[in-house]
Amino acid sequence: MEFCPNCGKLLRPKEEKKEVFLACNSCGYRTEGEAAEEGYVATEEAPKEKIEGVAVNEGAPNLPTTTAQCEKCHTDKAYYWLEQTRAADEAPTRFLQCVKCGHKWREYS
Ligand SMILES: [Zn+2]
Ligand SMILES: [Zn+2]
Hints:
Blueprint: E1 12-16, E2 19-23, E3 34-35, E4 65-66, E5 78-83, E6 93-98, E7 104-107
Antiparallel strand pairs: 1-2, 2-3, 4-5, 5-6, 6-7
Binding site for Zn(2+) 2: 70, 73, 98, 101
Organism: Candidatus Naiadarchaeum limnaeum
Protein name: Transcription factor S
């Protein structure tokens, strides 16, 4: 709320000739008008999109599993993936990661 600097009364919002301003009913004081045409511009706040899809869980990589024994905890199930580590004309190396303790190793063929 704003008050009249002259008489201290509450200023009332008024609109006149496409201008809005605050005016005092007692002494006639008024603030400078602001263009009313633009009006209230609603700020569009787009709802934040929820990231859908696979939740990244580092403890459980989205990889296929195979039967392989971990040398650390002796779990016989491990994730596996292939990586081309050597020359492109050679077979890719298969890497394994224990599903239980996360130990990684490469499979030597
Ligand atoms: Zn006044
Ligand atoms: Zn293990």
